[in-house]
Amino acid sequence: MNTSVNIGINQADRLEITQGLNKLLADTYSLYLKTHSFHWNVTGPMFNTLHLMFETQYTELATAVDIIAERVRTLGERALGSYSGYANVTSIKEDNGVNDAMQMLLELLDGQETIIRSARALYPLVNQANDEATADLLTQRIQLHEKTAWMLRSMLAS
């Protein structure tokens, strides 16, 4: 029984796209962990606002991880699924014990923008391969991360 993937995207392109998606997955999961940690550890006068905002953000990131991983699987490759696998490819710096709420906001903003750049970097290949489904996923991710970055930036404005 032949179960090879035959969806109109050649194997070389599928492999390269899934490598990029696995990087996006690693970045998204790493930002999820950092955001969740900040949710637990935020203190100060903005505690309630930030605690709730971080919860909204990490909940969305948890959903995104599943969507990205399932796209990797749809393209016929294995989705990363370990801390060490994520650590090898992510560009997100992990939480190193930050306790200052403003520093948390800055680091989360940097993480959101990192993911935007990771997603954007995949467009040329995805477009060349006529992979509309991955292009749609990337568009949705970029739109959401840009909105979240705007909100974080607004919290930092003085």
TrEMBL record:
Q: Which InterPro entries does this one have?
A: DPS_DNA-bd, DPS_DNA-bd_CS, Ferritin-like, Ferritin-like_SF, Ferritin_DPS_dom
Supply the CDD domains for this chain.
DPS
Domain Ferritin/DPS: start-end pairs = 20-157
Entry's PROSITE patterns? DPS_1, DPS_2
Question: What SUPFAM superfamilies does UniProt report for this protein, alphabetically?
Answer: Ferritin-like
An example Pfam family from this entry, by short name, is Ferritin
Indicate the secretion signal residues. none
Name the family. Belongs to the Dps family.
Name of the protein in question: DNA starvation/stationary phase protection protein
Organism the protein comes from:
Shewanella yunxiaonensis
